[in-house]
Design goal:
Blueprint (H helix, E strand, L loop, with lengths): L16 H26 L1 H32 L2 H14 L2 H7 L1 H5 L1 H4 L5 H6 L12 H31 L3 H29 L12 H23 L6 H4 L2 H32 L2 H8 L6 H20 L2 H4 L2 H23 L19 H21 L23
Helix pairs in contact: 1-2, 1-17, 2-3, 2-9, 2-10, 2-16, 2-17, 3-17, 8-9, 9-10, 10-12, 10-16, 12-14, 14-16
């Protein structure tokens, strides 16, 4: 194993600024949550729909971080060593997300039309799905998802904490053992979870690529958030020493790759369904390209793919934090827009009507704002609880080599 060659007085403990950041985000989140709860009394269906949009966004941060973290354990890389503790702090919020799922469970009858007996009676095709889409099994599956996600998060964080004081190979080998099957478990659970919580908003529609689309969306959004967080910490040790243009270039290339894969899955889903021209499938897209929704779809094409893709082709942009961070922020904003486009046009329980015309309720903004701020507040608290780097990582000293720009 390599001998550690860090500067003798160099600090790895988190800066005190993380504590104040946590407090500020939590304060904003609590205020937004109070306003959002007031909105629940005005329109419960709109509130729960806005809550689902925000919940899937913050869930994507934590699960996307877990997928990237496990991928890093299996493949290594400077990007992973530098951002590892940020990703571990993100998965540390999975217990929080378990609790935050309860409003979705309590509001399930305001969200999912397949729980409306009148709608089911009018759509006989749903009888074939009743073995899967029923209230009891839906709840059991949700419990299984959270048990699995919490188990993997606990194992990854516990093993990393142990590695802080134990440089023996068996510690990180055990993390690899969890990461290998963990990638497969993540793929399976997020596929069925997004089917249960998002796709089933319109139970007459189905896409076999929807789970893969969600997987890449979560990794893309977490990569963008990782870039923003790391660049905001560049003023503090140890990132002021190791997060140079070369490392930023790596993150920019990864965000470019995820952007292209996101576009590939999105276009593939659209092309297969559109060419099939089946009423039970194509109607889902028709509802999203008419009545004003086509402007949202066009914004996704331009601002979620085309513009970031063209900008990230620039080598200079990827090596400059002042230029890379705005692109990452754009990706995060468009992730919210993407979830809004997926969730909002679906039929409401009790009415049987689709949102054929573009609609936007203020709770669609306030509820996600509350969830994102609360998530960030506890995320910064998690990040401030451990050293910002795993100092026993054998390849880490290379980042301190003079003129290292790998």
């Amino acid at each position: 194993m390599s001998t550690t060659t860090y500067p003798a007085s160099y600090r790895f403990e988190p800066p005190a600024a993380l504590s104040s950041l946590s407090t500020r985000w939590l304060a904003v989140g609590v205020v937004a949550a109070i306003v959002a709860i007031a909105g629940a009394f005005v329109s419960s269906q709109q509130f729960f729909r806005g809550y689902l949009i925000g919940y899937m966004m913050v869930l994507g941060f934590s699960l996307g971080a877990m997928a990237l973290l496990m991928l890093g354990h299996l493949t290594g890389g400077n990007w992973w060593m530098i951002g590892r503790r940020v990703m571990e702090a993100a998965i540390g919020n999975i217990p929080l997300l378990t609790i935050l799922f309860l409003p979705i469970w309590f509001g399930r009858h305001s969200l999912y039309i397949w729980l409306d007996p009148a709608y089911v009676a009018a759509h006989h095709a749903l009888a074939a799905k009743s073995g899967y889409l029923n209230e009891s099994f839906w709840t059991v599956r949700a419990v299984i998802y959270f048990v699995i996600w919490n188990l993997w998060a606990l194992a990854l964080r516990k093993g990393s904490l142990k590695q802080d004081g134990d440089a023996s190979p068996r510690v990180w080998q055990r993390l690899k053992v969890w990461s290998g099957p963990g990638i497969l478990v993540y793929g399976l659970t997020i596929t069925t979870a997004c089917t249960d919580w998002v796709m089933s908003l319109d139970p007459t529609w189905y896409s076999t690529i929807f789970g893969m689309f969600f997987m890449i969306s979560e990794m893309l959004s977490m990569m963008a958030l990782l870039i923003v967080i790391l660049c905001s910490l560049r003023a503090f040790a140890p990132f002021d020493r190791i997060l140079g243009p070369g490392q930023l270039h790596d993150y920019g290339k990864l965000m470019l790759a995820f952007t292209m894969v996101w576009a590939y899955f999105s276009f593939s889903q659209w092309l297969i369904i559109w060419s099939g021209n089946l009423p039970e499938e194509i109607t889902w897209y028709l509802d999203r390209i008419h009545g004003g929704w086509q402007m949202v779809a066009l914004a996704l094409v331009i601002l979620q793919f085309a513009l970031p893709f063209l900008l990230l082709l620039s080598r200079d942009l990827k090596r400059d934090a002042r230029k890379l961070v705005p692109v990452a922020l754009l990706v995060l904003v468009m992730r919210y827009v993407d979830l809004y486009w997926l969730v909002a046009p679906n039929p409401f329980p009790g009415s049987g009507a689709d949102s054929h015309h573009l609609t936007y309720h203020w709770t669609y903004f306030v509820a996600p704002l509350a969830l994102v701020c609360i998530w960030l507040g506890l995320f910064f608290r998690q990040l401030g609880g451990r050293p910002l780097l795993v100092v026993t990582e054998p390849m880490l000293p290379r980042l301190w080599e003079p003129n290292h720009d790998h």
